[in-house]
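TA notes, week 10

Several of you asked for a full example with nothing omitted. So below is the full record: structure tokens for the whole chain, then the designed sequence directly under it. When grading your own attempts, check the secondary structure regions first.
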């Protein structure tokens, strides 16, 4: 994941959240995003896939300055530029 540092990423987790933002740091226990969007899928009818595609099309809509995500919950990390539309 170090090759993704300072680039915009989407982080899928086991919970009903999707995170998008700039990858600032990776440690043994957490992933840190800055200028991040924390999206709760329960708050809208948008699917995870639609949210990810919208992020690629419209950019990250930051609602947090900094977010720490537990690595134990992470399913995948992708560069926004690598999302296929």
């Amino acid at each position: 994941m170090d090759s993704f540092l300072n680039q915009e990423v989407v982080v899928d987790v086991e919970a009903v959240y999707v995170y998008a933002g700039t990858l600032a740091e990776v440690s043994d226990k957490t992933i840190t995003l800055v200028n991040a969007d924390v999206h709760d899928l329960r708050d809208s009818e948008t699917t995870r896939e639609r949210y990810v595609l919208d992020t690629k099309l419209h950019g990250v809509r930051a609602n947090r300055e900094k977010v720490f995500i537990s690595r134990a919950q992470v399913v995948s990390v992708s560069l926004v530029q690598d999302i296929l539309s």
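The CA atoms of residues 8 and 22 lie 4 Å apart. Use that as a sanity check on your answer.
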